[in-house]
């Protein structure tokens, strides 16, 4: 199984109403890899992650997780397979406390029995969780909320973590911290696929990237290959 | 108005207000969790009342058994109704309007079904408790005390469920962010089903407690629904604690207002208060101002 990619997307088409957002998108995430999905605003990079998770409807195409077709698996069953997600703009349960938010990450019965142990682990990653456990999540700063969101997503012991714009709206200092956390959880064996507009930022972390433009994959490769590609320059700078 | 009369009216207001609170909290629970304005909520009350009547009066089941059975029956009916109607509309295009239309239709359907099956006569249930307690100059019938105790226990139980149980966490999480809840493994559809069941049960509890005072007929849900609206608007639409506070407040203001005027003014007082709140604090007396 070591060579089976943890995630394979084949020919994915996604429509919102009559409007096609993704056109025949194919991607792969290898075991233990960090993959970046790049692209300007509106290129469909968020939709790729949403479609994997079942939050955006796939019209055709296939999403395979560890060799198993998960295209029609409902969102609320994904954690039981080993897939978790940090949603764009954190999306915490803002009226609930930090502790409640984090524990809800282990809500599904398939993972709830290990909640105690997972909690210890995520609190070692983010000491702030224990310090602020009774604070209402909505009252925290953006960076703190992002940590709670990542902690929540890790509570289900995922093997694959989807992160939708993990850096969005965060101060540079926090961006660096989040980057270190991503590296750290990847070292613990969790494969990560995330999207980001900033190419430089993305390749500090990832082994591999895909560039989307207008809902199509126009380039893929390693960080070096992509940074020096003319396509990147064209898409981002319009030259 | 003498002081002891004022106290008596406040107590009466709290007692009837505790029932308004139960009605309002059912509406608030459904709206808060699903963003569905349930115009058939009064019919949960009406059907719950009939269940109690048939069990306790027609079949002579002792009331301490008849009431729990009626509550469970209405809980199940609430889930069934959700599954057969609202379930198909949630998340579809225009669901915010279509669910209102559907629950309005459901309300009319259930009223007429009740008319057809049970007839138009007014039914009533004997008092569960007789006797009066006197504290100083205030006389309090035990039946009314029972109403208040049941309301407090119910509100306490609901608060416990929402704050401390797995189901309660799932309901609150779904209410705050349906997608984020799905991502952590909470199936919104099942939560919606249970939420409707709980709203039905809350309506049935109020019906059981008020059946000995107000008669049951196919239309008895309508005035109750209107009270429920006043309560949730006072408390802030979708807020469970707001509905409790709104219910008690409405009860007390009505009781004192009626004492100062006359009983025909009861609804005028309640609705005037509601209009005032919509005007002055549209997010409710106890709700948070939206940012």
| SSE pattern of chain B, N- to C-terminal | HHHHHEEHHHHHHH
Average of per-residue pLDDT values of chain B: 95
Strand portion of chain B: under 5%
**Which stretches of chain A are poorly predicted, pLDDT < 50 over at least 5 residues?**
none
Strand order of the largest sheet of chain A: 6-7-8-3-9-10
* Helix-strand string of chain A: EEEHEEHEHHHHHEHEHEEHH
What general outline of chain A do the C-alpha atoms trace?
A: globular
Oligomer: heterodimer
Shape of chain B: globular
Number of beta strands of chain A: 10
Average pLDDT across residues of chain A?
Answer: 92
- Major beta sheet summary of chain B: 2 strands, antiparallel
Query: Structural class, from helix and strand content of chain A?
Result: alpha/beta
Ends apart, CA distance between termini of chain B: 43 Å
Strand order of the largest sheet of chain B: 1-2
- Provide a count of the helices of chain B: 12
Radius of gyration of chain A: 17 Å
Number of helices of chain A: 11
The number of strands of chain B is 2
Largest interface: A-B, 30 and 17 residues
Radius of gyration of chain B, in Å, reads 19 Å
Describe this structure in words.
The complex is a heterodimer of chains A (239) and B (291). Chain A is built from eleven helices and ten strands. Chain A is α/β, with parallel strands linked by helices and 239 residues long. In chain A, strand 9 and strand 10 form a beta hairpin. In chain A, helix 3 (98-104) runs parallel beside helix 7. With 291 residues, chain B is an all-alpha fold. Chain B is built from twelve helices and two strands, in the order H-H-H-H-H-E-E-H-H-H-H-H-H-H. In chain B, strands 1-2 form a two-stranded antiparallel sheet. In chain B, strand 1 and strand 2 (138-141) form a beta hairpin. In chain B, helix 6 crosses helix 7. The radius of gyration of chain B is 19 Å and the shape is globular. The model of chain B has no long low-confidence stretch (mean pLDDT 95). The A-B interface holds A 53, 55, 74-80, 84-85, 87, 91-96, 100, 103-105, 107-108, 110-111, 152-153, 155-156 and B 166, 169-170, 172-173, 176-177, 179-188.
